[in-house]
Amino acid sequence: MMTKNVNAEIIAVGTELLLGQIANTNAQWLSQQMAAHGINVHFHTVVGDNRSRVEETFKNAQKRSDIIVVTGGLGPTEDDLTREAFQSISHLEMTEHVPSMKKIEAFFQNRGLQMTANNRRQARVFKGATVFDNNVGMAPGMMVSYKGRTWIFLPGVPREMKQMFNDHVGAILDKRVGGGTVIKSKVLRFIGIGESRLAYELDDLIRTQRNPTIAPLAQKDGVVIRLTVKEHSISQADMLLEQTKQHILARVGSFYYGTDDETLERKIVSLLKNQNKRIAAAESLTGGGFYQRLTSVPGASQVCLGGIVCYDPEVKTNIVGVSPLTIQSKGTISRECAAEMAVNVCRIMHADIGISFTGIAGTDSVEGKPPGTVYIGICNKEGDKRIEHCTFSGDRETVRQQSVIKGLEMLFNWIKS
Amino acid sequence: MMTKNVNAEIIAVGTELLLGQIANTNAQWLSQQMAAHGINVHFHTVVGDNRSRVEETFKNAQKRSDIIVVTGGLGPTEDDLTREAFQSISHLEMTEHVPSMKKIEAFFQNRGLQMTANNRRQARVFKGATVFDNNVGMAPGMMVSYKGRTWIFLPGVPREMKQMFNDHVGAILDKRVGGGTVIKSKVLRFIGIGESRLAYELDDLIRTQRNPTIAPLAQKDGVVIRLTVKEHSISQADMLLEQTKQHILARVGSFYYGTDDETLERKIVSLLKNQNKRIAAAESLTGGGFYQRLTSVPGASQVCLGGIVCYDPEVKTNIVGVSPLTIQSKGTISRECAAEMAVNVCRIMHADIGISFTGIAGTDSVEGKPPGTVYIGICNKEGDKRIEHCTFSGDRETVRQQSVIKGLEMLFNWIKS
Fold this sequence. Notes:
2 copies of one chain form a homodimer.
Chain A: E1 7-13, H1 15-18, H2 25-36, E2 40-47, H3 51-64, E3 67-71, H4 82-90, E4 94-96, H5 98-110, E5 124-126, E6 130-132, E7 141-146, E8 149-154, H6 158-177, E9 182-190, H7 195-201, H8 203-208, E10 213-219, E11 222-231, H9 234-252, E12 256-259, H10 264-275, E13 279-283, H11 289-294, E14 304-310, H12 313-318, H13 324-330, H14 335-348, E15 353-359, E16 373-380, E17 385-391, H15 396-416
Parallel strand pairs in A: 1-2, 1-3, 3-8, 13-14, 13-15
Antiparallel strand pairs in A: 4-5, 6-7, 7-8, 9-11, 9-12, 10-11, 15-16, 16-17
Helix pairs in contact in A: 2-6, 3-4, 10-15
């Protein structure tokens, strides 16, 4: 059933990694992707911005690995020497990649900045390489074959690296590995249920089922289950994945919101579109973070009217119209304040649904309430409403993030039925 | 002035790292410690639980590094083969470490469990090794000299590894290095200047200065320069760092905003506090992202009043009070709309400073303008204002993030003088 094993290694170039300023999360992410494509990763190496040590590392890799993925060292400065080091060991010719050069020039032109000469280096590629556009930053990536090995060069900035991998490299690897064995994964996404409860509900499946395997994994915003199947054909793989998905949803389907890349905010925007409903938010402790997240979805403008960030108590009364009596008697961090915020912002913005966040993120207590005390309100223009009192733990940013996620969960539950 | 340069490498043994199940945070932490002890780290390697590949990795390390720190592979299972691999390459004799064996036996006795034979493996150490007690788990660590190299074996569990390093290894390294050497870093942060321009302005310094070294690094929100100095004493190190910082600021100081952990939003909140000024925002394409970021700073409530997220054009007119005529003649994505948004939100919220964001993040064009077209306005209550027309490239989220960062840059420049 297996095709020839394809072995890879991942090399990160950058002194900042050797100084411990950042962790090599690129290697972790790339390893996950390689596994999903059925490729064994045998080594990770980190090497600093030092020409001879980078060359030594490249030589070792050329000896022992079919695929070598290199991250970092493609930028414009003296320290960026990945290209030069690979040229030294391969003697491949280099050339200027005209589209990339045009893009770099346009970048500087658009900003009215003068382009310095070292920026040209970023557009240099090996002759015959497959060049990967950089949609996020400037330096392109590339893939080049050399003496039976496949070398893939990607930027070190995680966002640029991931986008380039997703846009170009994944498909190439699938071809490279060739037919025969198919490894496919499906990710099921849940909100409102913890990892341990999910693992408990699916305990027998997780322990006994081997194809697909079932792996729950806690994430910042909910829990996911990763199904991984190994099969002869895509259709067989898809069938097994779908079967297992249905088994799982029969038990915990009420917490399920989407598959693979689906996000909770995308699901919500899509539900709101279908229902032709528009939403407004009044945010205090989250400072705009809820609406920022909702509007990250392309097409959000069809359902997102706007919101009021009422950080200061006076803005809660003057702009959102929370009654000063409410604030006097119950405080700004109260069920009553959250309710008025949601109802009023819904009315002010002529929305169908209003949502509100008030609470204390930290670091200090407010109105005698400890950090982590949060009220979230949700209402519709017909007058139904629901307020939740939450107690989050963690630092300021954690409390704010958890508040946003809880708001998304409440909104999803409010509109899904 | 220098003691002999001591070069180290860090090897992690564990297939879970190659599958991407965890990131190699051990290497990051150990690198920070090594730097603090004046030791250069030249390589990180991750290798799986595979005997021949671990041996290959150890052989490479023996050739090139003075100190080799190995984490993981010391446990009781079949997969734990660090000891055996090192024995294969070194032919050093092994022996049972009696205190560790007693501890392991006691562990099982205390819990009424039967100890399986494989647990004995954990107490095996090389003859002549310095053994490190494990105060958190079971397997001891050790240090052993072999043909002029120092090998340090530590557990893979971060808690055990760190405690063992702190209790034993640090002091040994200081002796090994001969004390005296101090490595210190300082990070200088800049906004409004690109990495290549910064590198260009400092070109001669970067190329010629060796102590401290000067390394520019692009980040999502600006550029940093990392200075790293190696000296006999902390006071001497600090002096050289400060001297170089002053040289650099003499050239590019107008783009500098802070050192080390300082963030732009923290710097801004602190400046606003000192000036006793309060700020309001009207955000369209950023959806609340600017205010969310500003309010991430503890104590932001002293300077952050609130904002209006005016995603929908009607909210721009009805709530923010942008003139319908402006929108009709100039569109919502215009200098004029940005100006009215900033001025109006400043007035509505009784703020000292108003800031506004309007534009098109993507994925489609709006009002005939392509994604990436953004206007950012800033004003004070005295009536001064400044509007910038920006052209960003990248996907929807990149445009939104760049807008927020540009807004922070404009605000910083507005208030810093």
